[in-house]
Design a protein that fits this description.
By secondary structure, the chain is of the alpha/beta class. The chain has one domain: Beta Polymerase, domain 2. It is 21% helix and 23% strand. It has a 4-stranded mixed sheet with strand order 1-4-3-2, covered by helices on one side. Strands 5-6 form a two-stranded parallel ribbon. It has a two-stranded antiparallel sheet with strand order 7-8. Strand 3 and strand 4 form a beta hairpin. The longest helix has 12 residues. The termini are far apart.
C-alpha cells in the first residue's frame, strides 16, 4: 500500500485527526496527525492487518522555528510498505502521547527527542535525558538554543565560536 492509500484509509477512519494529503516534493511521504489522535492512529497502523506497521525505524523532534514536530518513521516487515507520521506541537509546551507501549524502541527515540528538542512524551515509562546530564539547561537542537560557556565550572567548547 502506498502513502496516499494509507492516508485515505486513515482519513476515512479518523476523520479530522488526519490532515489533508500533501504530496512531498522530496523525501519520505508524511501524514500529518493531530496530537490528540496520535496514539490511536499509531495503534491502528500497527494492528490493522492490511497495514501491520511492525517496525518503528525512528522518532525525531524537529524545530521549525514557529512550532515543534515529532516525526515517526514506520515500516511494515510483513507488508513491505513505509510511511512517516508527523504531529505538530505547540512550541512553548510541546507534548505528545508516547508510543513506547506500541513499539518498545520508541522508549529510546522519545528520550532523545525529549533531551535534544524538548518534546514531552506523555505516558513514557522513563522520560529523562539520554545524552546530556539531567541538570543541563535547554535543548541543543532548538533553533533558539544558546550553548553555555561553562558547565559545572568547566569550559564548554563551541566549534562555532572557535574555542
Amino acid at each position: 500500500m502506498n502513502a496516499p492509500e494509507i492516508h485515505a484509509l486513515l482519513r476515512e477512519r479518523f476523520g479530522d485527526a488526519i490532515a489533508d494529503w500533501v504530496a512531498p516534493e522530496a523525501g519520505d511521504p508524511v501524514i500529518a496527525v493531530r496530537a490528540d489522535g496520535l496514539h490511536a492512529v499509531c495503534a491502528f497502523l500497527r494492528d490493522a492487518d492490511d497495514l501491520r506497521f511492525d517496525l518503528l525505524r525512528m522518532v525525531s523532534g524537529v524545530d521549525w522555528g514557529d512550532h515543534i514536530s515529532s516525526v515517526y518513521h514506520l515500516y511494515s516487515l510483513a507488508r513491505g510498505h513505509s510511511v512517516a507520521i508527523r504531529v505538530d506541537l505547540d512550541r512553548s509546551a510541546p507534548r505528545a502521547a508516547s508510543v513506547a507501549d506500541l513499539w518498545p524502541a520508541a522508549e529510546w527515540h522519545e528520550r532523545e527527542a525529549y533531551d535534544l528538542v524538548g518534546v514531552v512524551y506523555e505516558g513514557h515509562p522513563n522520560l529523562r535525558r539520554i545524552l546530556l546530564p539531567e541538570d543541563w539547561a535547554g535543548h541543543p537542537l532548538r533553533k533558539d538554543y544558546v550553548a553555555p560557556r561553562e558547565y559545572n565550572g568547566l569550559p564548554v567548547g563551541d566549534p562555532l565560536r572557535n574555542e
